[in-house]
Amino acid sequence: MHDSRTNPAFLRGMTQSRSVTRRDAFRMAGLSAAGLALAACGVQGKKVAAPQKDAVAEYWAAQKKNGTLRFANWPLYIDKDGKKYPSLDLFTKDTGIQVDYQEAIQDNSTFFGKVQPLLAANNDIGYDLMVLTNGLQLSKAIELGYLVPLDHSKLPNFAANAAPKVKNPTWDPNNTHTIPWTVGLTGIAYNPKYVDEVTSMEDLWNPKYKGKVGMMLDTQEVANFGMFALGIDPDTSGEADWRKAGEKLKQQRDAGLVRKYYENDYVDALARGDVWITMAWSGDIFQQVAEGKDLKFVVPQEGGTIWTDNMCIPKTAQNPVDALTLMDYVYQPKIATMLVEYINYITPVPATKDLVLADAEKATGDDKASLEQIANSPLIYPSEADQAKLRSYKALTSAEEKIFESIFQPVTQG
Amino acid sequence: MTSTSETGAVGTVPPPRASGTTSGARSGPPVTRKRSGRFGDGLLKGYVWLILAWLFLPIVVMIVFGFNDTQSKSNVTWQGFTLKWWGRLGDYPDLTVAVFNSLKIAVISVVITTVIGTFMGLALGRYRFRGQGATNLVLFAAIASPELVMGASLLSLFVSSGVQTGFVTVIIAHVLFSLSFVAITVRARVVGLDPSIEEAARDLGASTWVTFWRVTFPMILPGVVSGALLAFALSIDDFVITQFTSGSVQTFPLWIWGATRIGVPPQVNIIGTLIFAVGVVIAVVNTVTSRRRT
Amino acid sequence: MKRFAPYLLILPGGLWLVIFLVVPMVFMASVSTQEGDVVNGFVQTFNFSVYGDALVQYQTQFLRSAGYGLVATVISIAMAYPVAYWIAFKGGARKSTYLLLVLLPFFVSFVLRTVSWKFLLADDGILLSPMKSMGLVPDDFHVLQTTTAVIGGLVYNYLPFMILPIYVALERVDPRVVEAAQDLYAAKRSAFTKVVLPLSLPGVFAGVLMTFVPMTADYVNAGILGGPQNTMIGNIIQTKYLVNNDYPTAAALSFTLMAVMLIGIFAYAKALGTENVLEAAAR
């Protein structure tokens, strides 16, 4: 509709002659110069000191339950039935808290880019609870004091039911600010109709799939794969390794192999046939296969990435108590089971495996098969051997981050 | 508001004597009578229809896939006809919120734009005053500058002055980019008015106020209405400037942009179809009534 | 009272335009020479080197955008002219119906139209899939994420801006003049090139102005239909502003873009032999 500026009435107006002298133009320039003096002052920024221990108790003491919660999450990341979210409905029934659930996060950097100016200015971001992946943005949020330190005395289910592995992560010691929503793997997904069996990272560089390879836009994701392909362990990597990985990725792009650097939309591209082989997140492919698509997911022999999506409360949250209540609520095995049966990523609550199997006992036909598949899938309940191949994103200091970004951003933003 | 080159510029409003030839009177027999003419005409006609088909192709696809019985989360291959999505329009609560936001923003910004834009159009079309040229220059700049630059500069202003982007800043932006369109449309109408009618009203003893409301306003009303419709259309569809100024407020176009990353659900096709249908009805009514007027 | 009437009428709108159009441009210029980041704030240091750095780093995208804009404009003229010509001279009584037909597709949201193309052009989509199964094109043939797709999208989305001004110009050409020309010149072709074409040129010029500028600054088409080799300057500015919060670089890039466009418009007006920019735009 935008283009109704071609409306005849308007065009008639536009095409009327009018006279503007050059003097008028100069006058405008003069006015602008006056404004320049006004605009010379800088943009205000605020750096926040790290929270003190007693400040945490003080913060929570001053908060109370409001009965509403604004929850920002990723798309297709919660159980859904029509327009209902069964687990959230149960939550509302049990706690009386209404949830305004929004699929507002498409990728970490875009979302963080949107909320960071608000948080820096101490303004409400419109959400009380959000889910961020461990990585540059989450580390930055913690470092800048954008996240409310959690009151662990209100998180008994987390203490009782969370897998030991997800507790006390390197990016957030003692789970001070975050607890996991789900854990996932980045590996390679492919369409067996066009692609022979994939075992190695090198297949993403195979000229046979020119223009049919999908890579990810996220610099940390793509950097890890560049390093895996060269046999570099991201954990111990340094600047020289990153440069090599950057070159490797550039070479892949310039050879015309890469169709696009995708965000969440790689799934759609794979389903539509735009790419045949792509970097992929385990749960997405599991969901596609469950829907009947013929797709395969592998963790290549060189390695894969393991990441954690974390629930956290922004410092300007209006309903932090309600947010904390939900964070603990989803750690009940019953609720975690509802979530994993739909989301198909790795759940932080290991007790769910038996509950999924119990559900499978009760179910029949297709449902039974798919539930059994979930309980027995190495992608959802990975084995120790698999986990040995997996690496996290490289933890970066802010000085390192600058170098890292300057190497990998030009790769994805050609 | 007269210009030396008025008669020379092709784009100018034709002088009154020519107005008789602008529409109906010209549709006589075709001007060419050459032998090759008929074949050439046929070829040209085919070409025009080909372009029209190309223009309509994505629209048809959009409408049709609102009826697709798709099973998966993204709507890509045809899987049979269904009406079920019409009953499940509200499946995405945030999509519903986004659509209503778009409507709210459009209505509020149109009201503001129409009022102050009409004032500007009146001033520019009726009076000669100092600064008129500069006003025209700014109006032109508002239309000519790319949306991206307009959005970027507004964001620079808001960031520099610590204003939080959101509902209000979107409305400010929408008024800004539609203001020129309303002002220029109204001005065209005002310039075309016959001053003797108003003079006659005043001669008959009507006050300035009464003259305006009883005589002038009804005459410029068509210009105001078409300006307002234009502003509404511009607002409800705007993506670029809105993206820069919206903060965390979602509108329909922004929601679609986000959804392209996960696959656009059929509900979007249906809402798109509904907006399209409303636009078509308004356009058809507008065309029919304006034809009747001439 | 009468003397002040125009000023009172112009005041609200005028203020709006000054505060939210003119002043922001100034702020943008100011932000571009500041240094800092979102966390620590930005301080005005009159750091003009950002312009040099940004231009060196993103010259490819600048040139690419200009190239895409240029090619898309030329294609638009080629596509729009015959349509405008046919409607103006052969449309008869149904002229306004044809015009309406040209405009109708644009009642669908801009983003949605582009998304619809993405969907139509998918590798296994409704256009390419039959061609592939018939063996007309190889299995790995694709249109999405190519230059063709981006330029095609630009042309599609801005075509009416070209058709309408050309139509308006042609519509003003008196058929009797054309007839006289045809009597004067034996060939139909010379009647066209010597009479109709020159009379319609102002419409073409207006169309160029109304399409080239927004096409060059567009980022939606490259974002939805383009691939890693199709990034336009608009995509960079959008990312710098909204994702990286790197305001100085983003402001420097958009200020440069605006300045280049303004100079372009002035030069274009000059080339048309008029000193008055507005006049040129209005034609």
Automatic annotation (TrEMBL), chain A:
GO terms for biological process: polyamine transport. The keyword Transport applies. This is Spermidine/putrescine transport system substrate-binding protein. Keywords: Periplasm, Signal, Transport. One of its GO terms (molecular function) is polyamine binding. Its main location: periplasm. Coiled coil: none annotated. One of its GO terms (cellular component) is periplasmic space. It comes from the Bacteria. InterPro entries: SBP, Sperm_putr-bd, TAT_signal. SUPFAM superfamilies: Periplasmic binding protein-like II. It is found in: Periplasm. PROSITE patterns: TAT. The lineage of its organism: Bacteria, Bacillati, Actinomycetota, Actinomycetes, Streptosporangiales.
Automatic annotation (TrEMBL), chain B:
It comes from the Bacteria. The chain crosses the membrane at residues 43-67, 105-125, 137-159, 165-186, 212-236, 270-289. It holds the Pfam family BPD_transp_1. One of its GO terms (biological process) is transmembrane transport. It is a multi-pass membrane protein. It is found in: Cell membrane. The keyword Nucleus does not apply. Residues 1-33 are annotated as: Disordered. Residues 99-286 form the ABC transmembrane type-1 domain. Belongs to the binding-protein-dependent transport system permease family. CysTW subfamily. This is Spermidine/putrescine transport system permease protein. It comes from Streptosporangium subroseum.
Automatic annotation (TrEMBL), chain C:
It is found in: Cell membrane. It comes from the Bacteria. GO terms for cellular component: plasma membrane. Keywords: Cell membrane, Membrane, Transmembrane, Transmembrane helix, Transport. Residues 62-268 form the ABC transmembrane type-1 domain. It is a multi-pass membrane protein. Belongs to the binding-protein-dependent transport system permease family. CysTW subfamily. This is Spermidine/putrescine transport system permease protein. It comes from Streptosporangium subroseum.
